Amino acid sequence: MQGITHYEAGQSVESYLLIKSVTKSVAVNGNPYLTLILQDKSGDIEAKLWDAKEETEKQYQPQTIVKVKGEIQNYRGRMQLKIRQIRPAGPQDGKQISEFIETAPLSQTDMADVVTQFIFEMQNPHIQRITRFLLNKYHTEFLEYPAATKNHHEFVSGLAYHVVCMLKLAKSIADLYPSLNRDLLYAGVILHDLGKVIELSGPVSTVYTVEGNLLGHITIMVNEIGKAAEELGIEGEEVTILKHIVLSHHGKAEWGSPKPPMIKEAEILHYIDNLDAKMNMLDRALERTKPGEFSERVFALDNRSFYKPHFSS
Known about the structure:
By secondary structure, the chain is of the alpha+beta class. It contains 11 helices and 5 strands, in the order βββαββαααααααααα. The protein has a 5-stranded mixed beta barrel. This is 3'->5' exoribonuclease Bsu YhaM.
């Protein structure tokens, strides 16, 4: 069955989809409407549900499977689904939420093995113990949660997949630049986004928690490193440096980091994080683009469209 992200503008759609998120707004005529993000395993698409009464809002909540008929439209460089008919799926439709959830291309077991091996290779006992302690503390969530609600790795097990890709990048870069401290770099990769297991609500229909909105994953993780060090009886410079690496990994204050990177490994972590996130966005946008055409606009990449060459793989 064709995935929702593989339809082209002008094509008709008749499909079951899962409501990923719902936002209520008011149109210029004063009538309320809902912006639905609908998904299947191929990704998601936006749709508007006009003149949405209160009972309509109750009927179409996140994690609801719906049967939709409509057409695909190109709206300001992005595909949208224009709804003609919509209804919630019932038991008679025989649909399960698991049928619509996108997951990482690697198994949780394989990803856990990769991360465990990198921790095993750490030489500094303080850095190794703190990293292992926090990963064990949030082991299940780490393997299940997405890395974000949108833009990159926003799928089940996306957080672990993001970390595994970054660890492999970190190893290659450390091979090329042996002056880098591998323990700090690997620990930074593993811990930098681990606060998202508290910042985000879970692997399906993900939203920000109260802690996520008020504190954010960077602050959450800095606190977690401090608590772990205290519980393990670890003192010293390593704790401060690990906190700094997490604190600075977004690179700039306007991107959410209270401090810019001020040690070499923090600077490299920022580049690795940015590179992996952007490659994920590009691959996902170009995967649904035909050779010789431009992708839909990628908001997190300056709202640019990207061309897919005919000889592209």
